[in-house]
Amino acid sequence: MITDSHVLVSGAVSGEVSGVINELESVKKQTIGGRFLVSGKINDTDVHVMVTGPGIVNTVQALTAAIEHKRPCLVIQTGCAGAFRQSGLQIGDIGIADQETCVHLGIEPENEEQALEELPFSLMTLDNLNIKHSYPIKPEPVRKAFDILSETFNICRIKTGPFITVSTITATDKTAERLYRQFAPCMEAMEGSGAAHICLYYNLPFLEIRAASNYVGKRDKKTWNLPLAFKRCNGAVWEILKNFDKFGGFAG
Ligand SMILES: O=C(O)c1cccc(C(=O)CC[C@H]2O[C@@H](n3cnc4c(=O)[nH]cnc43)[C@H](O)[C@@H]2O)c1
Q1: Which of 36, 187, 205, 237 satisfies CB 3.0 to 4.6 Å to 81 for a cystine?
Q2: What is the pTM of this model?
Q3: What does R_g of the chain's alpha carbons equal in angstroms?
């Protein structure tokens, strides 16, 4: 594996990363693992941007291919997400994950209102970690990203908190309430736990930065704002990449 110090940015669909791609200088395009990868520079930082396709399976395949091709110094996953109303986040606001949980991993409970029981085996054991369904995220990059955005991106709320990953988009208020009771997440999306798994596996710093396109729960398309979420998540990632050197990198 070739080691280099670029930042790898991933999004499930092109709108989630196209704003970052448009800011790249000295652009190169290639296909890695069957995925579209664009590389270039933002200020002096080398940046690779990849569209992974939606969901955990696409994410894991695409990130594995990109990391095996060239090891990054940081992975940033971005995109839109559902915001939990109870978290205080509103449409267009930014969330930064400090933990990722795959809500589908566990043993089915007798009563569907109860939380899943923990898996009787580990998904991954690394050092003292025994991963069953939740992934810790290294706090230092999260704190630095929060500080950068608080200073440079004061057009919306920015919140750090737990995220959950689902394979079925939550579409009832009842399920949204149950998930909030069980995990107290600020955001729900479909890729984060896959990226967190890969970054832990390869011992890479990981940031998940998303903008809320909708509230989690009963679907009311009138209140959704995908264009705003795309604009904000691209803008937030761009601010971090522009300020990457000034804040001393993310290797911590
Ligand atoms: O066209 C649509 O109806 C539509 C609805 C939501 C998202 C899209 C996208 O193009 C982005 C896919 C991406 O969005 C994430 N996402 C956004 N909101 C939620 C949610 O409430 N629950 C779970 N995932 C959400 C997800 O990560 C998808 O990959 C188009």
Answers
A1: 187
A2: 0.95
A3: 17
